[in-house]
Design brief:
The protein is α/β, with parallel strands linked by helices. Helix content is about 30%, strand content about 25%. Strands 3, 4, 5, 6, 7, 14 and 15 form a seven-stranded mixed sheet that branches. It has a six-stranded parallel sheet with strand order 10-9-8-11-12-13, with helices on both faces. A two-stranded antiparallel ribbon has the order 1-2. The site of NADP nicotinamide-adenine-dinucleotide phosphate has 32 residues, from helix 1, helix 4, helix 5 and helix 12. One of its GO terms (molecular function) is zinc ion binding. One of its GO terms (cellular component) is cytosol.
């Protein structure tokens, strides 16, 4: 097998591709011959050494990768009823940047026929995050107005689609004009281009009474304004802090980390109670053991993809050997949809 290994945190040069013996499944495990692995911004943060759950569960050296799609090519003694050749999606938490992965059978899901392998590998991390944020935490309701930051991106695009599917009015914010059409195509009713002026003023014009839900992975750069845009009752869902990191430089800057950490708002429980505005947060990688959340989310999502209620985002493929280019591209902030690594032709 081939896999990507990060021996210690650093820049793109730390993404080393190595050959290793094929892993053997035991007991209830199955082995997936990987056709595509999803790339997430969190993988870049793991490479930089700033992803706490990666240190907590695995440490370095580490193979990043939360998700793959492929076919079953070997099974353990307690998984003999899983047919060789079955097309699956597997959630991996870590280890997905590889040509073969071994996972417990509880972590595989039948690939919807409507999706290619590349598309299937783009689903779990983004859509489970969006699903838990919107349905598990914020409990989006028909007719609500929601604001989605980075609406043309991986999680943002999934939030836009799920928000529209739930009957909400979805307003997206994007960082570049070229992303407007993509965000619209993924379910946004209106899109604000933050590069062309005051996005907060525009958000107020688009929903003068405020927003029931705002979904924010920027951190310090937008969190305060996101909270102020809530109506009552309103919910701010926080799921990332990517403005703490430089665009496209590959390595964090300690000065920037410290500055943005200090600038990150601390929300006042008295003010929240008095105005019926709440702050919610999530990190999917710490929810991995919560099988009910994982399975309910995947079940709902995969049925929706099979029925055509959700569509795969635009996909950009990179060879597994070219993983550094995928990270470099994602960190520019210019990509749309999802990037995937293709292990085998
Ligand atoms: N909490 C969780 O469980 C969880 C799970 C998955 C992802 N996440 C987080 O969700 C966020 C989105 O992840 P993703 O994989 O879907 O990525 P993505 O949205 O496809 O790409 C990142 C986007 O963020 C924006 N951005 C803002 N500051 C940036 C910076 N300094 N560098 C690069 N991009 C920047 C850019 O879009 P615009 O310029 O258009 O805004 C960029 O296209 C990340 O912060 C990630 O860590 C959290």
């Amino acid at each position: 097998m081939k896999r990507v290994v990060v021996d210690r945190p650093g820049g793109y040069e730390r993404l080393r591709v190595e050959a290793a013996r094929d892993p053997e499944p035991v007991l209830d495990e199955v082995r997936v011959r990987v056709r595509a692995s999803g790339v997430n911004y969190a993988d870049c943060v793991i490479r930089m050494g700033l992803y706490e759950s990666a240190k907590h569960y695995v440490g370095y050296p580490i193979t990043p990768g939360f998700e793959v799609a492929g076919t079953i090519d070997a099974v353990g003694s307690l998984a003999r009823d899983v047919a060789i050749g079955t097309e699956v999606i597997a959630v991996t938490r870590f280890g997905g940047y590889a040509s073969h992965v071994v996972v417990p059978r509880a972590q595989i899901f039948a690939k919807p026929r409507a999706l290619s392998f590349d598309e299937a590998a783009s689903i779990p991390a983004n859509f489970l995050t969006a699903h838990w944020a919107l349905h598990g935490l914020a409990k989006v309701r028909l007719g609500e107005t929601i604001l989605v930051h980075s609406a043309a991106g991986g999680v943002g695009g999934a939030l836009s689609q799920l928000g529209r599917r739930a009957g909400a009015r979805v307003i997206g914010v994007v960082g570049r004009r070229e992303k407007i059409d993509v965000a619209r195509g993924l379910g946004c009713d209106a899109v604000i281009d933050a590069s062309s002026g005051d996005w907060v003023a525009r958000a107020r014009v688009l929903s003068p009474r405020g927003y029931e839900i705002v979904l924010d992975a920027n951190g310090a750069s937008t969190l305060r304004a996101s909270f102020e845009l809530l109506c009552a009752p309103g919910r701010l869902v926080i799921y990332g802090f990517h403005s703490m990191l430089p665009r496209g430089r590959g390595r964090p800057s300690l000065a920037r980390l410290a500055r943005t950490w200090l600038a990150t708002p601390r929300f006042d429980p008295l003010a929240m109670t008095g105005t019926n505005r709440s702050v919610l947060a999530l990190n999917l990688s710490y929810l991995f053991e919560q099988r009910a959340i994982l399975h309910e989310g995947m079940r709902d999502l995969l049925v929706a993809f099979e029925r055509g209620e959700l569509v795969a985002p635009p996909i950009t493929c990179f060879a597994l050997d070219d993983v550094a280019s995928a990270h470099r591209a994602l960190e520019t902030g210019a990509t749309v949809g999802k990037l995937v690594l293709v292990a085998q032709p």
